Amino acid sequence: MLNKNNNEYSNNASVCLSPIIRKLQVFNDFIPFSNSNLFESQELTESRQKMDLFSSFTWKERSLKRSHENNEKAILDFFPVLQWLPKYNCKEYIWGDVMSGLIIGIILVPQAIAYSLLAGLKPIYSLYTSFFANIIYFLMGTSRHVSVGIFSLLSLMVGQVVDREFAICIAVLVTAKELGDKYKHKLRIPLPTELVVIVIATLVSHYMKLKEVYASSVSGEIPTGFIPPKMPSFHLMQRVAADALPLAIVGFAFTVSLSEMFAKKYAYTVKANQEMFAIGFCNIIPAFFHCFATSAALAKTLVKTSTGCQTQVSSVVSAVVVLLVLLFFAPLFYNLQKCVLACIIIVSLRGALRKFKDIPQRYRLDKVDALVWCVTMLSSALVSTEMGLLVGAIFSVFCIIGRTQCPHAALLGQIGNSVFYEDDEEYKDLLPVPKIKIFRFEAPLYYANKDFFLKCLHNRTGLNPALEVAKRKKSRRKRQQNLDNVLGRKEMSLCLVAEDGDFHTIIIDCSSIPFLDTAGVSALKETFKDYQELEISIHLACCNPSVISSLEKGGYFESADKDMHELLFHSISSAVQFVREKEITTDDSVV
């Protein structure tokens, strides 16, 4: 018995321990011990220690490798130039990049000096800004064609200084610009009109001594080289923070929109987040080198693409041109008249001034859009650029809210014998659906327009359920007071039903309702309940998933399976077919 019990105990023990033994053996952590295999156990222990050491080393190596790969990917994402520059096709791209870079550099110098007047700063600072912005965007930008540098709108937002004495010079510059636009198709490269005018005006000013004789304003001395970097004045941040925010928003929005526009045109992709970093560092790093705000510029980008630009190597070429001016040619602009720079600014606004010709067409296309354009333009011109942008954005939001408050609503009719239904006010010869009203509301249904929705529904169907219910209750009380004849009550009831009973179903076309809020769901529930008291059923058709989800969460369907099947339809035709089949079933049951 003892042996038997011992055997049973040992068997039970082995059974109990076997799952643990198998689990431990998987990890090589369980080694049976006995005096007979002591030496073998020591060897296994040493082998296991070596394997643990090797596996630990392998795990650390893999971890370091993954960390290295993640760091490498982060660096490549942060500096896209490291991805595309090693793959640069020199034979195919270099000529277009060099030509576009030279032309942009030649255009950039006079524009940078001119736009310094708008910013109220010395010309050397605008040259610094152009140089550093091109280099930084070359390293961090994802667009192949965008030209980053001085932008007239941002310069105007920084400061507004334009002299008035430019009558003669602007006539010359406008004439040259118009000639350049007229004959540009005959030129192999764009004519740098600004540079030609600046060179001629500088020579005339120098040899005729206009500054000494007439005391005219000149650009003055532009130092060569770079001013030593300096930390920005952090105590000024509180004073400029309110102005810096619209500058940052406008610069980022303009850069991203230009990048996406040209990326779509030339079939490649840009990363908006990386563009934010790129334009951000184009403003942060140059701040230590006496630079001001910068962003992408539309005019220079258009010139860049039209002259064969393929990659941002052209930005490096433009930066080299600006660098040569900074190091060697800057003193030559000493006698440059400020009125010439003012003319460059005014002439560069020709494209913006030509937008006034678009107002009639814009008004015919969309009156509200034309009104937003005029309000934004007037507020920017009469108050300030920042306030104009803010007023334009707020006014646009109010216009959108106003449009959704009073949207178009209509009853639909059937197009012949087809399954399509359209607005009976917009189309002729539509067939009305017997005993069914099909109503369309062309806006989101939310708190601001729920009352307008109910008003339109009542007016289009010709029946206000709340008033009709009150009318019938009043009539019923009157009948109970004056009539005791049951037959008379039935006849009166039938007369009332016949008076307003030209339809028994309303189908609401929800195809133009993008979303519902709580108030919108409540309005639909109220509509369903009010018409149900008059024995008029409400069905919804063409609801998108967002609307269906809002209806479910808002408790519009009492029992989901049954009510959704009877009240919700994928199309108007399926809802009409359901109602007609229900009519036939009802008539058969009555018979």
- How many separate helices? 25
- Classify the secondary structure makeup into a structural class: mainly alpha
How far apart the termini lie comes to: 91 Å
Oligomer: single chain
**Helical percent range?**
55-70%
The order of strands across the largest sheet is 4-3-5-6-7-8
Largest sheet: 6 strands, mixed
Q: What form results from the Cα inertia axes?
A: elongated
Radius of gyration: 39 Å
Count of extended strands: 8
Give the low-confidence spans. Answer: 1-39, 159-179, 487-500
Give the averaged pLDDT, no decimals: 76
Report the β-strand fraction as a percent range.
Answer: 5-15%
How is this structure best summarized?
One of its GO terms (cellular component) is membrane. This protein has 591 residues and is mainly alpha-helical.
What does this structure look like?
The protein is mainly alpha-helical and 591 residues long. It is 65% helix and 6% strand. The chain is built from 25 helices and 8 strands. The chain has helices at residues 2-26, 38-78, 81-84, 90-119, 123-140, 152-158, 167-182, 193-207, 210-214, 237-265, 272-284, 298-306, 313-329, 338-348, 350-353, 359-365, 367-382, 385-405, 450-461, 465-482, 486-500, 518-533, 545-553, 560-567, 572-590, and strands at residues 148-149, 295-296, 409-414, 421-423, 435-441, 503-509, 537-541, 568-569. The chain has a 6-stranded mixed β-sheet. Helix 16 (359-365) crosses helix 17. The chain is elongated and about 110 Å long. The chain starts with a helix and ends with a helix. Mean pLDDT is 76; it is low at 1-39, 159-179 and 487-500.
